[in-house]
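Per reviewer request, we include the raw input and output of the structure prediction for the construct analysed in the revised manuscript.
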Amino acid sequence: MERTADTFEGHSTNLTGIPSGLLASTVFNDFPLPLHINGVREMNRPLFEMLARSTSTEEAADAFQNYMGALFGLDSEQRLRPANHRRFRSSYLRLLQGWGFDANGPEGAVLKGWVESRFGLFPTFHKETLGRYASAGWMTYVEEKMSSRFHNNSINLQLDLLYEYCQISLARYFAAGRKHLTLYRGVNDFNEHPIRKRQGKDSAIVRQNNLVSFTSDRLRADEFGDCILEARVPVVKVLFFNGLVSGTTLKGEGEYLVIGGDYQVRFSYL
């Protein structure tokens, strides 16, 4: 499926102070601006003061997990407690685990809903291509993203803090001085990520879902599709990556969760 329309698909406002249409554009990806979710650092000063004092990735991770455990009651028992337990508390850890199993499951809908509410970007795919609003696919997505099962413990604030912590960790430890990461994604078709504009035999602008998995390992990307998309991803669009929080992994060691929009990509095949 190939789409060439230039209309932006998203909300007119968001919580970053940067227009959503700009956030979704290749211009932003080429020249990224600092991104922050309004009020998160100001309302959680103790956490960010601890992170500022940290001298290693281990210290920073301990500070983050201890703060999240104290604020949201995410002790080790609650992290591992089955989701159907009557005292279940939703947590960002559960959402990441669910995404690792199935990005189109209920946990994936909540994560995509968080991106929509904070960055103003509509998803393009959830179980099926999301076309005109009020279709059956849209209703399924809305129902899952709003499920009370996952919204009983300030889950959007948990994800806000995860994003801000990720950005600090990237800037200080994992990608210091860098504005972009070269990442890869394997695909078999373009139903989930429609082509917006072809730019030659091996290049195009592709609309990525509002939250999408990439990997830093090109060989790993080949396990998920015959066509490899290579993209320069702004560091400020990374929500999570393996190694950021101990005990939490996605499908592969080099996997990154990335805020979507239009990306200029190169195609290649192994």
